[in-house]
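RECORD TYPE: protein structure
NAME: Phosphoglycolate phosphatase
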Amino acid sequence: MVALQDIKFVAFDLDGTLLDSVPDLALAADQTMQALGLPGVTLEQVTTWIGNGADILIGRCLSRDMDVSPDLDPLLHQEARRLFDRFYDEGGHRQSALYPGVLETLAAMHRAGIPMAIVTNKPSQFVPHLLEEHKIAEYFVDVIGGDTFPQRKPDPCALHWLMEKHQLASHELLMVGDSRNDILAAKAASCYVVGLTYGYNYGQPISASDPDIVLDHFSDLAEVVRLGS
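PREDICTED:
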């Protein structure tokens, strides 16, 4: 296991990294399509379409394709997003669950005094409740959602903001995610990045995006940030 030197701060993606949330997202997306009188969408489809925020997810559902149709009616898109937010909120995120090892590893990092943040493309309105519900909110000093800044991942603005706020050099920040958006954002910010193999990456292996380290299990992160040293 490769151990990184001098890591002082860790930023985490949420969906597909800490939380298996696709069952709730897929249910809300399917309910949205059916409420609009359109064909439903499947868990498998939504798994390959998430990662770029809710607007793009809904655009892909309406287009039934990874590429959002340029002919998509903006008013339909707006109404679909409104319905999706409603259904996702009303569903109570009951099918979402932390991945194995997440709770224990975050707790160990917190005990070791490593500050952590969430950097997700998920709409920020949903994030605090999810963190509280899964009893991990206390571990994060910053929570950045997909609408916190004008740009979202793969733009590195959130990582640059963290480095400026916490007075970090780029080699002192580690990004942990499951998607090429996480890898691209970290590379653009010149910080280290761990790619997890078990999440949602548009059906592609995370290794294809060339993260610094690839992990199959979240708990292996303890060795990467040298919790045992």
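COMMENT: The CA atoms of residues 12 and 142 lie 10 Å apart.
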